[in-house]
Every structure is written in C-alpha cells, then in structure tokens.
Specification:
The chain is of the alpha+beta class. Helices cover about 30% and strands about 30% of the residues. Strands 1, 2, 3, 4, 5 and 6 form a six-stranded mixed β-sheet that branches. A four-stranded antiparallel β-sheet has the order 8-9-7-10, covered by helices on one side. Bound molecules: cytidine-5'-monophosphate. Pathway: Isoprenoid biosynthesis; isopentenyl diphosphate biosynthesis via DXP pathway; isopentenyl diphosphate from 1-deoxy-D-xylulose 5-phosphate: step 3/6.
Amino acid sequence: MPQSTTAEAFAPAKVNLSLHVTGQRADGYHLLDSLVVFAGIGDHLNARAAPRTSLRVTGPMQGTVPDGGDNLVLRAAALFDPPVGAEITLTKNLPAAAGLGGGSSDAAACLSALSGLSGRPLPPRAAQLTLGADVPACVVGVPLRMQGIGERLTAWPPLPPLWLVLVNPGVGVSTPEVFRGLDSRDNAPMPDMPHARSAADFLHWLRAQRNDMQSAACRIAPEIGGVLAAIAETPGCQLARMSGSGATCFGLYTSPDSAGQAALRIARAQPRWWCQAGAILD
Ligand code: C5P
C-alpha cells in the first residue's frame, strides 16, 4: 500500500568547493577528493502515485534535458523493483552539463520521492552509483567529503555561514572531455582541515585547495576565464572557483546581501549568463 499519494523533493545544485583529481582506476574512472556542498538553488520534483511511471519536464531549462527514458529521473525510478508507479513532474531550473550535478541531483530527488511514496527503502549506494558518480552524494545532500569515484562519503563538520553566487556562461562542457584534457591525474589529496573556528579560517584553508579540472575546462571553454574574472571582481567576493567539470563557477560571500548584490551586478553586465545567488545548505 502507498504511504501517501504525493511526494515532493528539492534537487539542489551540487557545488564542489574543491575538487582534487588524485588518480585513475583501471576502468578509466578518476579518483577524486572533493568538498561537496549543496546550494539553496535547484530543481523541484513532484511525484504522484499512478498506475504507470511517467515524466513531464517543465521550467526555464526544460529544453536542455531529455524527457524520455534517457532522463536520469526515469533511470532512477527504474531502480525500484517492483516498480513504484508515479506521475513525475520535474521543474528544471539548473543548466545541464554545467558542473552542478543537476541530473544526479534530480535522480537523487526521484529516489527520495519514490521511497517516500512507497515506504520502501532507497536503492543501495552501489545501484545509485550506476546512475552517476555524484548520485550518492546528492542523496546525502549535506556538506561532505567525497572520495573514490564518488562512493566514499564522509560528513563534513559544520561550515561557517557562507553564501554563494553560481554563474554559467551558457556553454555546456562534456565531463569526459575535461577528464581527457587533464594535465595530471595524480595530484595531492585535500589535506585535513584544521578545526575552522571562523569563516576567515575556513576560507583561508579553502583558498589553498584547488579544482584540478579548471585549467582543462578553461582550454575547452575559454568563457570560463571570463566568468571567474567577473565573479572575482564583485565586492565582498572571498573566492572564485569552478565547480565540477564546469562551466559553472561559484563565488563565496560572507553575507546574503553581498551575494545578492554580486548576482545582480553580474546579471546586469552579462544578461545572457545564468546567474543565481543562494545559501549553502547545512
Ligand atoms: O558519472 P557521471 O555520469 O557524472 O560521469 C560522466 C563521465 O565522466 C563518466 O562516464 C566518466 O567518463 C567520467 N568520470 C570519470 N571519473 C569520475 C566521474 C566521471 O572519469 N570520478
């Protein structure tokens, strides 16, 4: 018997505050060491119990993702056996192929909604990983250290209050292409973070970390350099860095007001760019 007839889930943008590429497995997948957080900016998923599973995609970015069987939401739904019938509506706000784990977060939201709808447990982490390397992290949805290819997840101590701006220049970047373009695949892992008492301590530590995919992504999509420069020159910006394999970059701010002002300023200067301000979810 269904537990309820509808379930809703938020699919937040995943942001890699740091992303170190530390090796490569024999099957070609790369070993990562990343501080992953989630933003109060994202897609929305609604599921209503129904005899058969279907998906309708709506929202400003609806045209950027498939609405057929290739969509990660339907692939996530297919992990439930026997099936959980649901009419699913996905409101797509996040750009696709953007380094924000949008598809992975949608898949995680679908798993959580269908689990809520049916009262059945979430599929195991190994099954989640077959949808995408970021899916297990998106299922957890709180700040964490992600290692391995995305299956080793460790809770991160509470972060100081920080706000971010996400900026995408409207260029899709292929993750495998960026991985192929890496200069080096055996970089140093993230050092442990000393107990960060304040935003200043944490930011000092974070500035010394890297996104090892940033240079390769900038060669593929030179617009990323312009995005980083535009973020870095906004008042109050503490750090500008690329997320995931790009092209989305983030700026970090110590107040919601400075993040909001920065987003307005960038949106005015570059009306074609996608630009949003939001909190880091804890
Ligand atoms: O898992 P996801 O769909 O996000 O990954 C897209 C592609 O990026 C993979 O098919 C793989 O080629 C590459 N990748 C990788 N190492 C990872 C994650 C992804 O090489 N840790």
